[in-house]
Amino acid sequence: MEITKVYPLDAVFDNLEDVPEDIKTNKRYAGSSKWTVQEVAESVKNDFGSIDILVHSLANGPEVTKPLLETSRNGYLAALSASSYSYISLLKHFVPIINPGGSSLSLTYIASEKIIPGYGGGMSSAKAALESDTRVLAFEAGRKHRVRVNTISAGPLRSRAAKAIGFIDMMIDYSIANAPLQKELSADEVGNTAAFLASPLASAITGTVIYVDNGLHAMGVGVDSPIFKDLNIPKDENH
Question: Which residues of 144-183 are buried (b: 16+ CB within 10 A; e: fewer)?
Answer without folding.
Answer: ebebbbbbbbbbbbeeeebeebebbeebbebbbebbeebe
